[in-house]
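Reviewer 2 asked us to include a model.

Predict the structure of this chain.
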Amino acid sequence: MYLQDVYKNLSPKNRNKSASGGFLKSNGSKNVFALGFVSLFTDISSEMVIATIPLFLTESLGFSVIAFGLYEGAYQISGAWFRLWGGTISDKKYRHKKIAIAGYGISALTRLGLFISTFITGSLAIVFLLIDRVGKGIRVAPRDALISLSVEKGNLATAFGVHRSLDTLGALLGPLAAFTLLSLTPGAFDSVFFVATLAGFIGLTILILVAQQPENKNIEEVEQKDSTSIQNIKSVASIKSIRLLMATVAILGIATISDSFIFLYILKNTDMDFKYFPLLYSGMAITYLTLAIPIGKLSDKIGRKKVFISGHILLISTYLILANFKLSLGVVLVALACLGTFYACTDGVISAITSGLPNIPKIGTALGLISMTTALAKLVSALIFGFIWQYLDGPVTALYIFSGLLFIGLVTSLVLIKQMPKVSYEK
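Predicted model (structure tokens):
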């Protein structure tokens, strides 16, 4: 019943099927849900891999903390440029769905490559993991552009909340599936990668057969002659609000610790058995899944920027909890709940903020710029955190340092955000 109410809210009351916007007015919500199910199956696939890779690299391949930090950095940067490229190229000739299919297709094929690598050499898996980031980089911006074009701007955060809730259901089920497989067959990473391959291709099939490319709500944009990708990037990057938003996500991203590092810290400071490691991802996903839609709706009502900043305040609390308390089961559960709430306040909300900015000529390019900036910031973050953990005073010191960095980043971000223009549907 709850999802039905959300569906009705996303669908404009006027369902007039005019030539300029009939699809958007009659099927916009259906498209959001279709894309949500694409992400659900894709996240089952990707999270099965993500939830096992820290163990695979550190236990099976013997990676040190700094080596894992270098991997995390390479993991982020491998798809960083493609996040921008995917958004920019999808804006040309209005082909967001086609570019999204390419990105999801690459990711599905890398799962098959991971499965095959288990029969050859584990080191080959790293190559496929980095290629997977290319696929994700390509698909993120055009997919989010499809969502933003399917609903009215006043409902953007709700729409992204719906999508992220289904996406996060996959993030919950994926680690559970990995945990089940590793419990039944300890160390059988090939089984994990095989099931992940099947889930990835199911998501790709839904995208191809069910999701649709909405008609452009701005007819003039369709009629414009195609400009080059560089011209599109320069045009969007020259907009003050985009530059301010890029600066904000860069500052906050550098001060945000990778989930994999947080979960490795929990693993190494508790008596947790290795096979339970994937459940940390599921524990975080439960909160995110529960709150994604309510927080999306709330941010549409009270202001997306307020919710986005609040999420980062909660993240500081998470770091301080982990640094100051013995990691009992209760403390770990609180930390996972805080992380899940942080993502509910930020992940879909930042896409809604970007999509809702006024006078953005190329929405895919704008989303790509923000996504690429976030990825590059995570690269810097991973390298810094891994270095502090291994070569300075360990993970606790790193948690304190990042708490301080994030506080400074929040103060700076508040100054930047206040300079951004308000729009009619924003509080």
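Confidence is low (pLDDT under 50) at residues 12-26, 218-226. The two ends are 28 Å apart (CA to CA). We have added this to the supplementary material.
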